[in-house]
Structure formats: structure tokens, C-alpha cells
Amino acid sequence: MVDAVYPGSFDPLHNGHLDVVTRAAKLFDSLLVAIYETPPKNVLFSTEERVELFRGSVAQLDNVEVAPFKGLVTQLARDVGAGYVVRGLRAGYDFESEFEMALMWRHLEPGIDVVCMMSALEYQFLYSSRIKEVARLGADIQGLVPEQVAERLNAKLNGS
Ligand code: ADP
After folding, report:
1. pLDDT at 62 > cutoff 70
2. Which ligand 1 atom sits nearest the alpha carbon of residue 39?
3. Distance of CA 158 from the midpoint of ligand 1 (Å)
4. Which parts of 16-152 are beta strand (E)?
């Protein structure tokens, strides 16, 4: 049983995600970071890699677990006894898509509430897709992602 789940693709995890997890870990007694095995987009990192990178980055948060999952978020929340789904918000675009998704989840499972948390201002521009794009072009991504993510991303994209 956990209080809340934080689902996402996390391909890869970046400091905006970590900021949201850290805030949510203060709000809830227990939090499950749930990593989509089959997100509706192509992923660069395998499920195992995304789980391992996330675990390595939240090892200091005692009340946070990380696991892969398949299927509906609402089913996962029901299965693990969670009453809340955590999502993160950046300014602009996220609100519309998170609002629409939260209402669908509420329709599917009225007993579950979605809690949206805004990341710190310095992480508002972080998108996994943009990080991959600039890293592929040789940009320095230190400070945007945990160190082990930067290393793995550079190794995967540029063989360095
Ligand atoms: P998904 O594949 O479900 O969109 P992501 O891995 O991209 O998942 O993100 C998981 C959650 O984290 C989503 O709610 C997303 O809005 C949120 N998120 C992503 N980047 C940031 C950020 N920089 N600041 C705050 N929330 C973020």
C-alpha cells in the first residue's frame, strides 16, 4: 500500500521530475514513482534503465519507491491502494493536458484525486525531449539532469 503514485515516462529523468518527487515526498507518507513500460511515445532508455536511473537518484528519500508499470494509471493506483496521483506542472502547455487527463482518470476511478505540483522556476523549461535533442547535438546538460543521467545520455547518444 502507498499513499500516492507519480506516473511518467521519465525518458530520461531530469531535475524537474526530481523537484516534483522531492516536494511530493514531503506531502505524502509513501510515494510510488511508476515508470510506464509502454508509453505512447518512442523511448530512448529501456524500462530497466529508466527504473535504475530513477532509483539511483532518489535513494536518499526513504519513503519513495520506484517500479515499472503497464496499463492504466487508475488501475495501478487501485492495485497499490493509493488515493492520489501526483503530476508535475510547467507553465503553459501542461495545464491543459494534465487537466484533461485528470478528468479522464476521475471518470474512470472517482475515488482517486490528482495532485499537481509546480516545479521550481529554474526547472520550468525542462522537457525530456528537449534535453535529448540538445544532448544529441553536443550540448552540456549538466545541471539539468542528475549526473548519472548525463553520463548515460552522453554515452548512448554520442558514445562518450
Ligand atoms: P509523461 O510521459 O506522462 O508525459 P513525463 O515523464 O514527461 O511523463 O512527466 C511526468 C510528469 O512530470 C508529468 O506530469 C509532467 O507534466 C511532469 N513534468 C515533466 N517535466 C516537468 C518539469 N520540468 N517541471 C514540473 N513537472 C514536470
Report:
1. yes
2. 2
3. 25
4. 31-36, 64-69, 84-89, 113-118
- Say which DSSP state 23 is in: H
Q: Distance (Å, rounded) from C-alpha 55 to C-alpha 66? A: 6
Give the residue, out of 94, 96, 123, 141, with the most ligand 1 atoms within 8 A of its beta carbon, to mutate for a pocket test. 94
Active site residues: 17, 41, 90, 128
Instruction: Find out whether the beta carbon of 94 lies less than 6 Å from any atom of ligand 1.
Output: yes
Model confidence pLDDT, tens digit, residues 75-87: 999 999 999 999 9
**pLDDT for the residue 92:** 81
CA of 77 to the centre of ligand 1 (A): 18
pTM of the model: 0.95
Pairwise CA distance, residues 134 & 34, whole Å: 26
Cβ proximity of 96 and 34 under 8 Å = no
